[in-house]
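> forwarded from #structure-qc
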């Protein structure tokens, strides 16, 4: 769990990043894993979520990636905390939260790994400076502003293609970085051959994003950093009437002071809009029929933060500051289709706010580092509503106005690490954290196939308490670590099965035969105990890494959810393993990555088991000229069937099959 301070590698190039302040000294006691620039640039997949999966214990809600899954199933978590589509880990890009303001999921096609300098994954809750929401940890992406340019064009299986461009230029006194990515393909048929029917077809995708990063000094010790991001994402789920698309744009301004008092101040805005169509397929899978159409899900996120680090002398670091985040959004939906025409309209939405202040102190005394921090946040859920009406007559069927709610919640973290000699270190951490329910969880009911899930405007915030102890070893270019941890997630939000169709159920209406009725509920708890281990070594052009996560996760539940008591949370494997080896010598590079995900359950009742899967990915680059490389990539090289979902009708959905890529990469500058 302990991230030791490695000796500086003088032979390696320095990667310039769009950072605010140096890594906090308190992180020495935390479980931190870093994916560096070389690994991001030479990854076997250009999908950001697939690159992150090399960290054991990191998972999305579904096994499929952002080319074939529904965008609302793309929440990210760590340490077997499971959940639903919302993220229980906090994803940041240059210090700005990235979760969708309405639903808490992540729009992964917005990010190009090749434009990043690094990704730091801090496991465990209680991140006082990052704001609430980091129940499982923090995933911090940092932009690269290292001067140079690179263009990459590749073609792949199933008529897929991809183009990427990243360029950073020095201005008079600052830098301008521009990156862009476009990808698309005809896709594969998500439903397996044994369970598909005439209604099933390939799931094409079209995705594009562009981002700009500008840095400019305002004085000798104050720098302005400005970023802008825009993306579009078009996908289909493999039948008629399942198209969905998301458009988004972000902007952020950050001032960084590097004088005697180090400080950073950030302000940002997010805009998202989702359109999504849902279909039901008959028992013989011969016909798909539209059952709902979210014609718009507009949402906005506004926020800001400030952090100060006063000069207190050698070995002491104090961080104080505060942040706030405001979200608003609504779902506009047509449903209850009769002869392919909608008969009803539903609209639901609201607002949330969080704001608080924090302080964190780290003190290093020789071989011992102590750290402790806390924050207090005010949260508020306001203006929640849900309306349903008949389209033909305009008659109102439902008009709910939900009472505003608010409260105060703490976040805290304390840790200690001691270097015991011989390259070994020991450390321990304890923490508290929380996450507020999203607007989607609070106010919007939804359907997935034959199943229907009701919203719950009375959801309480999730709260976590955890502790960990670990040992680390570092000698030269060899690093080893092992961490034992335990977490209790109280009031965990889950989709709880309360009945089976056919029948009429509150909040969703009619559920047909074979369908299940669920409602979002606060469970009493999710208890997780586990162990994480990692190893990494470098020698010359070679590097290897391996990691493992073994967990025991159980639900504690009573009342209407009593059937879940003692079961494992949905979509949570007990065992995950990763490993890889890479070789890089100048413009020549090659790597293999192995990933194993243990068995997990599709549903909260642990009735639909998803079998374990082991996949192998590969990458190779070879110079053709001084600046031109041939690049080859392979995803799921052995074409293993990775089961991503099991429908109520027994249909089996798979994740990405074998996908091969070949292309050219042209680069200039220090690459």
């Amino acid at each position: 769990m302990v991230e030791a301070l490695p000796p500086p590698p003088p032979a390696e190039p320095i990667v310039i990043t769009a950072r605010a302040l140096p890594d906090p000294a308190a992180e020495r006691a935390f479980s931190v894993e870093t994916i560096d620039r070389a690994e991001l640039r030479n990854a076997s997949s250009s999908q950001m979520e697939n690159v992150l999966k090399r960290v054991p214990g990191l998972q999305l809600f579904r096994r499929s990636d952002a080319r074939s899954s529904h965008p609302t199933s793309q929440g990210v978590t760590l340490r077997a905390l499971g959940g639903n589509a919302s993220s229980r880990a906090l994803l940041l890009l240059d210090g700005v939260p990235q979760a969708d303001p309405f639903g808490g999921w992540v729009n992964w096609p917005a990010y190009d790994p090749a434009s990043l300098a690094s990704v730091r994954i801090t496991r465990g809750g209680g991140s006082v400076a990052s704001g609430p929401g980091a129940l499982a940890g923090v995933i911090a992406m940092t932009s690269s502003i290292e001067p140079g340019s690179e263009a990459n064009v590749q073609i792949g299986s199933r008529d897929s293609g991809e183009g990427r461009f990243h360029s950073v230029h020095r201005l008079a006194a600052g830098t301008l970085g521009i990156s862009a990515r476009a990808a698309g393909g005809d896709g594969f048929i998500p439903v397996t051959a044994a369970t598909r029917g005439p209604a099933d077809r390939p799931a094409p995708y079209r995705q594009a994003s562009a981002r700009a990063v500008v840095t400019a000094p305002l004085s000798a010790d104050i720098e302005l950093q400005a970023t802008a991001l825009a993306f579009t994402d078009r996908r289909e789920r493999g039948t008629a009437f399942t198209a969905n698309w998301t458009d988004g744009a972000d902007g952020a301004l950050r001032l960084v002071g590097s004088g005697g008092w180090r400080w950073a101040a950030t302000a940002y805005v997010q805009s998202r809009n989702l359109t999504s169509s849902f279909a039901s397929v008959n028992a013989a899978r011969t016909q798909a029929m539209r059952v709902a159409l979210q014609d718009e899900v507009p949402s906005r996120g506004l926020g800001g933060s400030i952090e100060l680090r006063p000069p207190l002398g050698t070995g002491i670091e104090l961080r104080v500051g505060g942040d706030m985040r405001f979200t608003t959004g609504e779902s506009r939906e047509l449903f209850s289709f009769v002869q392919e025409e909608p008969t009803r309209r539903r609209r639901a939405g609201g607002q949330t706010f969080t704001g608080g202040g924090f302080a964190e102190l780290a003190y290093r005394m020789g071989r011992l580092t102590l750290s402790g921090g806390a924050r207090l946040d005010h949260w508020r859920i306001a203006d929640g509503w849900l309306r349903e009406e008949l389209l033909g007559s305009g008659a109102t069927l439902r008009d709910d106005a939900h009472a505003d709610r608010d409260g105060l919640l703490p976040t805290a973290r304390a840790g200690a690490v001691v270097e015991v000699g011989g390259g070994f270190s020991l450390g321990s951490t304890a923490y508290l954290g929380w996450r507020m329910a999203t607007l989607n969880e609070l106010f919007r009911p939804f359907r997935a196939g034959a199943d229907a899930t009701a919203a719950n405007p009375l959801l309480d915030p999730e709260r976590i308490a955890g502790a960990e102890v670990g040992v680390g070893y570092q000698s030269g270019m060899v690093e080893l670590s092992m961490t034992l941890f335990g977490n209790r997630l109280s009031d965990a939000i889950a989709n709880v099965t309360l009945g089976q169709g056919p029948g009429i159920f509150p909040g969703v209406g009619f559920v047909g035969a074979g369908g299940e009725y669920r409602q979002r509920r606060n469970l009493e708890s999710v208890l997780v105990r586990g162990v994480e281990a990692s190893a990494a070594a470098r020698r010359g052009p070679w590097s290897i890494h391996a990691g493992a996560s073994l967990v025991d996760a159980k639900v504690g539940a009573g009342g209407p959810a009593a059937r879940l008591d003692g079961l494992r949370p949905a979509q949570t494997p007990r065992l995950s393993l990763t490993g890889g080896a890479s070789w890089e010598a100048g413009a020549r590079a090659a790597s293999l990555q192995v990933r194993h995900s243990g068995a997990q359950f599709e549903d909260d009742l642990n009735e639909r088991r998803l079998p374990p899967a082991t996949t192998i990915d590969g990458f190779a680059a070879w110079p053709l000229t001084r600046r031109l490389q041939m690049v080859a990539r392979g995803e799921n090289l052995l074409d293993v069937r990775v089961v991503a979902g099991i429908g109520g009708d027994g249909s089996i959905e798979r994740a990405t099959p074998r996908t091969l890529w070949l292309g050219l990469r042209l680069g200039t500058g220090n690459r």
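QC bot note: Confidence is low (pLDDT under 50) at residues 1-12. The longest strand covers residues 341-365.
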